Fold this sequence. Notes:
- The protein is α+β, with helices and mostly antiparallel strands.
- It has 13 helices and 11 strands.
Amino acid sequence: MSSERETAKRAFLRSAGLAEARRVALQGDASTRAYERLFLADGTRAILMDQPPSVESHPCPPEATEAQRVALGYNASARLAAGRVDAFVACAGYLRDCGLSAPAIIAADPAAGLAVLEDLGDDLYARLIEDGADEAPLYDAATDVLAALHRRTPPAILQADGSSWPLLTYDALALRTATDILIEWLPQYNPAVKFSAEAAAQWQAIWAPIHARGAAGASVFCHRDFHAENLIWLPRRAGVRRVGLLDFQDAVRAHPAWDMSMFLHDARRDVSPQREGAVLTRYFAGLPQVDADAFIADFHALGAANIVRIIGIFARLVARDGKPRYRDFMPRLWRYLDRCLQDPAPPGLGDWLARYVPTEARR
Length: 363
């Protein structure tokens, strides 16, 4: 950490009245953010979020054209928030307004890329289940969170705690950017895989109707990273508030099947077909107006898009960023993709993979 960044953090904590807090660094993730746990003088705890400004490409301006977004870079094309603290603050406020457990904002300086958040604890779904907890009540409660979010029509602009952020649509360009990551990075991850111009053109043709389908169905607040590593169990709270939410700053207006795919196609742990079926059944019971057959078809099609996106991102993390641990998740993702292709959706994807990504390369 640069001395300049450390000076900025100390000044921010001093302005928030937290200069004397004891600080302990927390394990990072694949993002450019860092977190510290703060132990306060009154015996309580909080979390310091550190997102250095200008370390990522620009987020998407709401009125940008497709050409402008492409010129601005990956974040604008994919409609990612570039880690912006004001995005986190505004999204957290909306989620709390929905009666959900997003962290309260104790202090924030979005321009400096710093915030102090309520500490929701360490009981991540993933760790609890690894330690033997029954996953059923955890998944039931998280399913109810998705149903609660999907009952609402979110506003175009989210506003809370002095921050505002546009809730942009996860549109065809963003979806195309998502699926194209695989054809860009899988050959660099595995040199035995090569894609010709013909293969790339076929790939685009396969996905175009799915991208259009996803954009047309974009209607709900989409957390965008809704899985067991970002959900915290809060059993002392009631109902949907028992699920603590993290890492939602990249939220968009998206098809409701997208977060369901993030939840059930979890790259870091196996979600069984039986658990998938139980979650979908509970979701439809909570939203009886949803056409279950149509939703499941969209879940398989957009789920396939989401899975190939994650495969591409993990390939990039290994090949470009030197993070070999992401190799371990690849076989699970290919298994999830096989499950989606049993639908079959999208048409032609199975044949394309058989031709260009042989079974031995799917690891």
